Amino acid sequence: MDDSINKKVSRISNGVKFEDALKKLEKIVEALETGELSLDASLEKYEEGIKLVRLCQKKLEEAKKKIEILVKTKDGRFKLESFDTEYSSVTPRGGAKKTKK
Q1: Backbone φ, ψ for residue 93 (5° rounding)
Q2: 3-state class (DSSP) for residue 71
Q3: What is the phi/psi pair of residue 97, to 5°?
Q4: pLDDT digit string, tens, across residues 51-60
Q5: Are residues 53 and 77 in the same domain?
C-alpha cells in the first residue's frame, strides 16, 4: 500500500465501524454494477471503494490480533493462545484444531 493511501485510510478509519464501511462498499459495488455512472463518477466510486476495502482489511487485521483461542493441551488443561492461521477450524467442544501447512 503506498503512503498516501495509508494516510487516507488511517484518517478515515478513526471512528468508522467495520460494518458501516462494508455497507458503503456494497452500495458502491451496486452503483458500479449498474453501468449507469459516467466514467468520472465511476472512477471516484472506484477510488472510494479501494479506500474502504483497505479500511476493512485494516479493521479485520486489528480484530485478528485481539482474538485468542482456548486450546486444550495434551494433559487436559486449557490455555489461551493467540489466533493464528494455523487454527483453521474449531472442534465441537470449542477447542481449536491445528492444520498442517
Answers
A1: -90, 10
A2: strand
A3: -115, 125
A4: 999 999 999 9
A5: no
